[in-house]
Amino acid sequence: MKIKRTWALLFCAAIFMSLMPVPALALDSGVYTGTVTTSYYNPDTGNIDDGGTANAALGEGMCRSATAETGLVEVDKDGSIWLTIRLLLQSNCKNVTFYTRTDYDSYSQASYSVTSEDSANDSIDYRFKVSDAGVKLKCTMYVTPMGRDVLWYLYVETNTLTAGSGDFVVSIDTSTPEEPAAPPAATVPPADTASPAAAQPAGPTPEATEKSAETPTSAEPADTPTPEKTGTAGGADQAAPDVERDAAPAVNVSKDTPGSSAPADGESALESEAPGGGKSGGLGGAIAGIAAAVIVVAGGSIIHIRRRKK
């Protein structure tokens, strides 16, 4: 018994859930086509609101022949939904009006725009905004041959929607946003044109040239041997001409006195006796010169005194 009761409860729960309204699935941005279902009866009350004929079969055929079987659903990037309903037999109809269901047996008039007219198919496409792709619609229009307004209900079956626009005019932007272009890669200049300074040949700078011109380089004189460095008898020989040049003025002082040749002998004697060698060779030559000068002056003075005495 318990098992039968459990199965009975599950069966009832399934039936109850199937009767509950299922919220419509959110549609992504894009365009879709779906089947349009018509009804001569009011979907909320089940009554015929047309007021023309009580023959439901005749009414169903009339509303079906006036409505195309396919409709267009457009969802823009903001999530707004637009329906396009194609009505037929439009050469014999006028004053078309659409209403959207807002509550139980309550409808609000919709403002529409005509997107296409096909005289060959005798059809006009009406586009208007709705709150849901499967919302219930009510349509009325004046049929000239009948001489009165007709009324019926219709809606788009959302479970039949497929991506695409068919032969309908699409009014929303369906292009995908382009990805931003990548920034151009930085270009590296060639090495030989990187900078003007790199292309100049290496050489002395103007500052270095000016400095070299202001401070001339002096070459060191050749190391000539001096009497102190030679330490040979040649030092005395080289010093002798200097003594003669230094002693020349003293000889000229006593130029007008005889015996001027004597100092030459004494001088040569001193030069011959001048010691040469060692580090004191130069100093000895200088002393010998001075002594020779003194002897010349003294000799001249003595000769002069003797001549006066005579």
What does this protein look like?
The chain is rod-shaped. The chain contains 8 helices and 10 strands. A hairpin with a 4-residue loop joins strand 8 and strand 9. Strands 1, 2, 3, 4, 5, 6, 7, 8, 9 and 10 form a 10-stranded antiparallel sheet that branches. About 24% of the residues have low confidence. Helix 6 packs parallel to helix 8 and helix 7 packs antiparallel against helix 8. With 310 residues, the protein is an alpha+beta fold.
Q: Could you estimate the helical fraction of the residues in percent? A: 25-40%
Regions with pLDDT < 50 over 5+ consecutive residues?
15-24, 215-222, 224-279
Radius of gyration: 69 Å
Content-based structural category:
alpha+beta
The tally of helices reads 8
CA-to-CA gap between the ends? Answer: 195 Å
Give the overall average pLDDT.
73
By DSSP, the count of extended strands is 10
Largest sheet: 10 strands, antiparallel
Order of helices and strands: HEHEEEEEEEEEHHHHHH
The fraction of residues assigned to DSSP E strands is: 15-25%
Give the CA-based shape. rod-shaped
